[in-house]
Amino acid sequence: MITYEDTGHVADTDAQSQDYGTVLKGMQEGAESQNAERKQAGYPAMHLVGWAQPPAYDAGNHALIWARELALEGDPVNGLNYDVRLLGRTGVLSLNMLASMKDLGDVRTAAQSFGRSVRFEPGAAYTDFNASTDKAAEYGLAGLVAGGVALGVAKKVGLLAIILKFGKVILIGLAAFGAAALGFFRKFFGRKDGDEGTI
After folding, report:
1. Contact criterion met (CB below 8 Å) for 83 and 146
2. What DSSP character marks residue 49?
């Protein structure tokens, strides 16, 4: 799935200092917290095993790549959720691939090719950002990993249509998006169930 989201300019100034171990822990907690609801709805539990590929940022191409390994209860083969984010002047181009862990090598090759070959048009590139006129995103690289853009994509395309068309593997991936973002933002912004207002 390839999409573009008008997020605003995502700062990469803290690319070298991101603690993705802590981000992963928050995402895992978010995923586990959703399993009771999943089972009540008739779906098997889903577990975020860990990074299939830890987040890595290519500053030259302004590309962020990472992958998650997902385990679905009762399924003998773990799923793979592979993400590429190409940062632009005022938004993010997203490539998301859902497969099984046995396909990791092929998916990684395809993702790397995508990250190197796609370019924004002149004037829309990351380096064209104008701080005095352009909108800035409300999160940085860790927010992208935790699901910032993916949540927007899921809402726009419609979960039901995706599930009916592509089946169980897509369902696992989209559930991971929501659970990951929920765990991340609760952990880092202090939002608790029942709190009033929005983040």
Report:
1. no
2. E
Q: How far apart, in Å, are the Cα atoms of 46 and each of 34, 83, 107, 117, 150?
A: 9, 18, 21, 34, 18
List, in sequence order, the alpha helices (H) in the chain. Answer: 20-33, 35-40, 104-117, 141-146, 148-157, 159-166, 168-189
> Do the beta carbons of residue 136 and residue 9 sit within 8 Å?
yes
For the CA atoms of 78, 73, 84, 4, the dihedral, rounded to the nearest 10 degrees, stands at: 140
- For residue 156, the SS3 value is helix
Q: How many CA atoms lie within 13 A of 21 on its CB side?
A: 1
Distance CA 146, CA 37 (A): 20
Tell me how far apart the alpha carbons of residues 3 and 89 are, in angstroms, rounded to a whole number.
Answer: 16
What local confidence, expressed as pLDDT, does residue 166 receive? Answer: 38
Is the pLDDT reported for residue 87 higher than 90?
yes
Q: What angle in degrees, to the nearest 10, is found between the helix axes of 168-189 and 20-33? A: 120
The tokens of 72 are what?
């679905």
pTM of the model: 0.72
Query: Greater confidence, 169 or 127?
Result: 127
Q: Nearest to residue 86, comparing CAs of 156, 134, 144? A: 144
